[in-house]
Amino acid sequence: MAEFIKTVNRLKPKFIALHCQEFGGKDYRNTSAYVDDFVRTLISNDEMIDFDTIRIFLDEDYSFDDKYTALGSFYFIHKTQNASIWNFDGKFFT
Q: What keywords are assigned to this protein (predicted)?
């Protein structure tokens, strides 16, 4: 976390896409509290204050082990930027 925040502070990006593999591990039932803490800590960090649009996509459906991916994707958009996400089902931007 410290290295990520240090890099954000140094580079001053306007858009961040952070992709995590095995996020929460394959035993999500027992590690979901750690994931929640990580997400809360990351988005509440003072260095992230200028990212006013944040989208987080986590695979939290561990009901079928053979389909559970443990993937997590985080998108941070700086307040100076304008961005939308395409809704594939509805065929529109949100």
A: Hydrolase
